[in-house]
Fold:
Amino acid sequence: MKYVVIGTGEVGSIIAKDLAISEGTTQVCVGDINFAAAEKLAAEIGPLAKAVKVDIYDEEGLCNTIDGFDVVVNAVGPFYKTARYILEACLKKKLNYVDIADDSSAIIQLLEYEDRCKEAGITALISQGVSPGTTNMLGLLGSQKLDEVDEIHTSWVESALGDIGLACIWHGLEMSTGIIPQFLNGKMTDVTAATGSANIKFRKPLGEYPVHYVGHGEPVTMPRYIKANTITNRGNVWPIDHDITNYKVYEKLGLASNDILRVGDVEVVRRDITAALIIEKLGTVEAPTKDVEDPLFQVHVSVSGKKDNKDVTYVYTCFTDMNPATALSASYGAQVIARGKLTQKGLFPPEGVLDTKDFFLHLEKKGFEIYEEVIVDGVPQPEMLLEL
Structure:
């Protein structure tokens, strides 16, 4: 099995390394516009790896790079800017595709390719990260245990203490400003980003923390496969000084859009100015006190409805590191396609095509601990590690 991973940042590097040690892998090509970064990653992986310089906006060069591989993994964000270029190349070369697209705007773009992927006879697995991705699968898992589903709420909190690149900031501005979709009361609804706030009880050391509506993929794709009245995604950044509602200030100043601003004789994208300012600020982020433990990346998914005529809610929580959680989910997606476990042709989010038991057993083998709490008629049952 031969894979090509485009994008050698924090997530792409972990994807490539995990694929290289997976059963049956014969080659992992790592591509990046920064050839030195690709060479460094290939050297770390060893003999199975090959480094190439690739510009995703160069269609001919991109097609030449991916030709002959079994699965192309796209780890180049922000996906509202990039995803369609790599998928277009995969369609042209009739190659299978996996990405970790998270922006709702990117996913709406990608869904327009459903028919073309099916006609080309390829499998395109989108949003195969942690949120969206693992969150979608947790929503699916809970829904499979209920007789009827009422609401699914997916939430996350990301720590600002780790290495956060420019693509993450672009994504942050995209999901936290403007108008975004949420599935409310049986229909897709446009809401103002960074509203709909709720206090969610995450795992220690974070505990209760506020989250807000953001433009992620869960509310866009999950209603296609899970019948429910409401499906949402909320998120935030820790520590609270970096609450995503702060991005609304930039929006009010007109600095959150992708429009061009002319400064003297120089033209610059407004959002690029903001992203540079935020990156500069993040370089000095410290924990509120030395005694406060970094909460890393927290996931919380609640699925409520009816089971045996009782009101039942399944609550899933996980305390992990965002980059491995995203990457190992994507690696799994690439592997099941390469091994022929997915025979469906077309474009799918994880909840539309993956097996819940196989997916979570894979994460368990990789060391992830997911907890399940069941609430029956308002009475919480003892929390336990997820059993499949």
About this structure: The chain has two domains: 2-129+323-358, 134-321+367-376. Residues 322-338 form the longest helix (17 residues). The domain at 2-129+323-358 is CATH 3.40.50.720 (Rossmann fold).
